[in-house]
Each structure stands twice: as C-alpha cells, then as structure tokens.
Write a structure and sequence with these properties.
The chain contains 17 helices and no strands. By secondary structure, it is mainly α. Helix 1 runs antiparallel to helix 8, helix 4 runs antiparallel to helix 8 and helix 12 packs antiparallel against helix 16. The longest helix is centred in the middle third of the chain and has 31 residues. It starts with about 30 loop residues before the first helix and ends in a 7-residue tail after the last helix.
Amino acid sequence: MHPAGQQSGSSDRPTETLLADTPPQADLSHVTQTRALVSSYVGMLGIAVAVNTPPMCLTALTDTFLLTDTQRGVLLGALFWGFVAAIVCTGPLGDRFGYKPFLVLASCLQISGLVLSATAQSYPALVTGAAVLGVGCGVLEVLVSPLVCVLRPHARTRAMNLCHGFYSVGAIGTLALSMHLLRLHVSWRLIYLVMTAPVFLYGLGFLTCRLPRPERQNTNLASVLPWNERVFWRMLLAMLFLAGAEIGPHQWMSAYLEEVFRFARETAGSGLVLFAIMMALGRFAMGSLPAKYVPLRVLLLNCVGSAVCIALAGTTHSRVVAVASFACLGWFVSAFWPTVLAHCADRIPDGGITMFGALSAVGNSGGIVFPTMVGWLADHRDLRSGMLSLAAVPLAAGVVFVWELWETRGGGNPAT
C-alpha cells in the first residue's frame, strides 16, 4: 500500500479510471466518504432484496414447479452456495485489486441472477439463477463490511450495526412490496424483475464514487488469514451457528405460517415483515449502545432469547404467538452478524478483506446447511419439527460466546 503522503492529490487526477481505487481513508474528503457510505447502505438494500424475495415467493414457486420440501430447501440454500463461492474467491482478490471493480461486478451478477430466475422454465434453471444471485451478494457482502470499517475506523461496532441496519430496512421494503404485489395477483416473475432497481442503484453509486484502498494488499491466504489467533477460530464457529439461528427461520418463515397456520399467501409474509422491523430496531439500538456494555455479553443474552422464540414458534398452536415469536426473534438475532464482524475487526485490526471473507463464508454456509436441514426434516416428519430443530442452534453459539468471554476474563489477550 502506498504511503498516504505520496497520493494526496491523486483523487483529482483526470487520468484516473472509474474502476480505480483511491488512496487510504485519510485522504478522502468528508463528502467522498459520505458518498461511499451511502452506496454501502444501498448495497445492503440490494442484499436484502436477494435474501427476502425467494422466501416471499416460495409457495408461488412451489405451485409453478411442483417442488417437494427438500427441493424448496435446496433452492433456498442455492443462494448461499453462491454467497460462499464468491466470498472465498473475492477476499484475496479484493485485498489485491481493491473494492471498486468487484462492487460493480456484484451489481451486474445480482441483476443477472434476478433475470435468470424470473425467466426460468425449469427447476435447475431456477436454482442456477439463485446461485448467480448469491454470487453477486457474496461479492458485495465481503467488501461492504471492511469498507465501512476503513471509513469509520474509530467506531466500528456502531458503524457496522448502522450499515447492517439498512439490510433490515431493505427487507421491510422488499417484503411489503412483495406482499402488495401478491395481493394484486402479480406474477412472481415480475416481482423478481422489479427487485433489480436497488441493485442497479448501488452499482451506479459505486461506479461513480472514489473509494479507499484496502488496508492490506496480500493474496497469500497463509499469511493473510490470522490462523494463529484463537479468537478467529471461535468467531468462525460462532458465525456458523448464528447464521443458522437467523437464516434458517427467516427462509422458512413465510411458508411455515402459510402451511402450518393456514395464513393466506399474501398475508403469510406478515411474520417476515415484523421480523425485519424488529431486526432494524435491534441493529440501530445496538449501534447506539453505550460503551460500558460488553457486546459479547449482549449477544449471549440474545442467543438465549433466540432459542426461546424459535421453540415457541415451533410448538405453539396460536397464530398470534407464532407471529409474535418470529417478530421477537428478529430483535434477538439483529446484532449477531455485524457485532461479530466488528469484534474481529477490533481484535485483529489488520485482518483485511480476506478475514471478513472467511467469516462471511462460514456464516453463509449456515444458510446452506440449516434451511436444507429444515426441508429434509419437513419431508421426513413435518415442517413444525424442522422449525423446532433450529432452537438448538443459537444455544450452540451461546456456548462459543461463553468460551470467548471466559478467555478474556481469564486475563489472556482475547485476540490470541
């Protein structure tokens, strides 16, 4: 990485190409940093579109392609196969070549995935579209988090929760719009096409905005990833379980309310909407939490609350209790993802994009395993059993947080 003083005037050079990154964060004006942050926020809206559109349209897709529960689980997991594949590849490349080329590529891939899904005439084509959509999301996700940390190095937990709060805002918008269009009997194919709008906007925003360079530019995984840091391994394990606690119920929620509690298709998304609203509130609340509170202790309490909510949703026969449980679950899982990423950034500040990529890859692999597990259990037992099985997942994450807190309390460096 070039010294900051060498490049102080490079952002004004007319020969700089649109796809080139500019010097480190310190050399970017306040306006430029704000534009980069706004583009990141809109990017989170783009991820929300990709993650929330398939579950909202799941029963419509089932009618069109005559899917079994296992096939539905595989379809929901295909998005996260794409996530993981892209994250593994993008981390080292982003450290080497910078943010901008891949952020623009992410927009193009997401639009392609949405169009492929909207025009699919067979189940394999639908799964392919979901995977391409996931690749675009994975490229975007692995870059946005470290970019925000570079832009706001002295308030990472607050900045990360604020940024990821816009994911929840995007989820609310996606779900509300999808419910409205389904109520109007609009085809799921058209809904997929409508969802390309925010994806195009964030791509345009990053294309026309100057961005800082990554904090490190090394592509050797053996030296980039903090293999010797025990906190890194603990947080990898935590990310796997936390993703299962969030993504597993989220991806099946709409179908669960429709099929187990007999909600109408256009209103079954109400649980998802409330889930997203509570998630947004939780993330903004976590972002404003006073410094005296230890974030991991808050996450430990949230793990217990998440398990209770999932267990209630999986056992109750009351519509009101089920919807309320899913809404409260949104609050409890809200801080999981951004706070763990911020914790690693604080403990291992030179981890770079590749470290964020490894954490996100493991986390998104939970989005493959747990929705597929629910579908398999639904085929072999029933959907209620599949949902109930997820109650154990946040408790497993809680064990990891107890381990991390114990290491810290024991007097050792929590980053080792």
